[in-house]
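Dear colleagues,

As part of the handover before I leave the project, I'm documenting each prediction I ran so the next person doesn't have to rerun anything. This entry is a single chain, and its sequence is reproduced below.
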Amino acid sequence: MAKKISVPLTKEEKRSNVIRRILLICLLVSMAILFVELVDNKFTVDYRSIMDVVFVLLWAVMAAEAVLRVYKLAAGGSFSDYLKHNKAEFLWLVLFPVILVCSFLLPGMAGWRWLVVLKMPNVFARYNDENVFQIIVKIAAVFLILIFVLPFFNLVAVAISKPGQIVNLLPKNIDWEGFKYALTDMEFLRSFKNSIFITAMGTIGSVVVVSLAAYPLSKPDMPLKRTVMIFFMIVMYFGGGLAPMIILMDTLGLMDTIWALIIPGWMSVYNMLLMKGFYESLPPQLEEAAKIDGASNMYVFLKIIIPLSKPMVATIAFFQVVGYWNSYGSALYYISTRKDLYPVPNYIRNFMAMSPQSVTDMNPTLAFYWNNVEKSYLLLSIIPIMCLYPFVFRFIKGGMATGAVKG
């Protein structure tokens, strides 16, 4: 096996490596400061002046590096070539001082500081080797995961902590009273059952409708295929509005029935296009061989195409599960008198909208555990989707990649 020969770096290359690392650190730290100020404004107010000074210093370093580089290019006669390929960076260099001054003088323009992140592509462009790029991508992924995971831990901690305490990520003096109330609330359990039924029937119906619509459209010899596709695309981008839907549901006799929360969501043009793209990626020889053996179109579809489409079916089904489970507006539009048909999101919203006086009249103990019960409801509504996601993730990853090849 050949031994890898390491070539010593020149002085210029070492200097370039140091500069790009300094710029990356400045960029990441300044973005962290902006993010902390955005999500934790209440607890960082005492350190705001220090954070502002650090932010200005970091971006002054990056601006100084850019100015020095432009000066050297201008001195060497290469400024026109630089301006031709780096207009965005030069514009950033001109506007950067104006943005910072305005953001400090006018508090209402503090959000403009995020505009300085336009420098980011220029910093990342200096990292051309794959290993460094993967490290940056993983750091960004961890950062995004924390954005979603930390609020969940706070939700759990508040739900099981004794009331009257400041709780962040870890529970204090564990108290299960909130969960006990939520699990014994018959109206909440009924809404939970409604959501399960709506999600199950909606998902099954959607998969059937989308699969049947996508299959003929995946055939190049389908008559009027272009016309039908134009119709679907128009429907996808332009809706008739809420009033026609309410009139339609009333005409069909579906108002104040649970089916009004299910049937309108069966057809999703986006999901149909994904499924169509997946069908088009399958080898046509499979169908041709089956039809030579005497198989009908329905037999080919049910016995050959659908079993091969499991990744895409799982992907579409999961999209629909999440959509139906979190649906809030449909019950508001189509259910006016049958409150017993409300799904979980609507029940939780109505519960959270109750006045303190009505809560005290209904159950004095509940007023003391109000925050715990509220968070317990939210946590219980999240758990089903969390339990489902690990089982369908591998299908989603493959299905999305394959379905996007065509369509």
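The chain is about 70% helix and 0% strand. The CA atoms of residues 357 and 363 lie 10 Å apart.

All the best with the project,
I.
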